[in-house]
Every structure is written in structure tokens, then in C-alpha cells.
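Table S2 (continued). Query chain:
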Amino acid sequence: MTITFLGTGTSQGVPIIGSTHEVCLSNDLKDKRLRSAVMLEWDSYRYIIDCGPDFRQQMLRENVGHIDGIIFTHEHADHTAGLDDIRPFCHRTGDVPIYVPERIADNLQMRFHYIFTKENRYPGAPSVSMQIIYNKAFTLSGKEILPVEYFHGKILIFGYRLDNFAYITDFKRIEDDEREKLKNLDVLVLSALRIESHPAHLNLEEALTFIEQLQPKKTYLTHISHRLGFHETVEKELPPNVFLAYDGLKINV
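Corresponding output:
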């Protein structure tokens, strides 16, 4: 399976509009971060986890001609606001399957009413096939997908495990029974927002502590803000098996 980091930034991306912070002014391309999402590919199949406001740009950059579906972690705009931009895929191949945790289905149907309505549909609107997912394993194109439920601030959201790979973003804390799902990983993708603490996200110290507890073989940090620091500087300070992800990075698991 190949994982492509479509974006590795936090909700405002990096650089932030109008910011004069030194990281926002960096010329290093690894300090340019679109909103967080990944693309998963195995055999001839291609799935996206999250569809944020940079979705169009990410699809163009990676020259993506088709997708087999989109899996959502939660309803926040930096993970869902690009849903309208699936239109080219709809026009080419029909309804795009989307896999939505039960709690956020109503949220998407309210915000994107014109996509889900069956009455007086605008002819250019995207079309989706929505599948509600629960906190139990389901199968996509022959591969088992295991949701992992955890807290993002006060709300419960999903990360996902496929084989010995897990994608865990917007993470703050997890119950013990859900933590068990993250044992024996070859690759963990984990959010690490910044140096300072945050009520809804791990900071770098908390992320490294969690990694030490889980002991995955490798970890890639994502959902990064400018306040974490320069990519090159932070990368040099990380443990040998921990790396900063960056936009466009591809790894094989």
C-alpha cells in the first residue's frame, strides 16, 4: 500500500494568510502545508481520507484521474470543505462513495444540502453515495478498515487502521480499549500541532510520549502549524524513528 500525504497542515494551512511569522515566510517547500489529508493506494484502488478546502489543488498536484471513495474522520471544515470539488470525478464515473461516521452525516447533509437533496437538483452538483460507518471494521476493495475512536477536544472522532498502518489526526486523548487497536504498527501517522499545549490537539511533547507508549516501528507527524517550527530544524531534533511528514511525501507500507 502506498500512502501519499496530500496535505500536512493545520486548519489554516501554512503559511497563514497575512502572517509575518518566520515559518510562514520560509522558502523551504517543506514548510508549505495544505490542509491535512492522505491518499491510500493498493492494487488498482485509490481512497482519500478527508476532503478539505485544498482538495482540488491536491488532486491536480498528484495528477489524480480517479478515486474509489473518500473516508471522513470528522466534520470540521479543514477536513470536509472540499466536498464540492469532487464534481469532475462524479461527471466522469458517477456517484462518488463517501464513508461517513454516523454522527457527522447530518452535519454534511445540512452544509451541503444541494449535494444530498433529491428534489430540484442543480445539474452540475456533485453526486455521492453515502455509507454510514460505525466503530467496527468494514471492508473496502478487499481491505479491512478498522475505525479507531478518540477525542479531539470534547468530540469523538475516527482515525483508521489498515493492516499495520494507522492514520490518527486531530488527536488529544484515547480510551484504553481503543488504544489496543494501535498496537504492533509498522507505520503510525499522528498529529502534532505545535510546541505549546492545545486543548484539542497533541503538542509535540505529548505526541512523542504517545509514540513512546505505542512503540510503532515508524511515525510520521502531521496536522502541523507554523508554531511547531521550521521543518528542517524540528526534523533534526526528533527520535530516529519519528519524522515530520510534508506535502507530497509518499511512503510504502
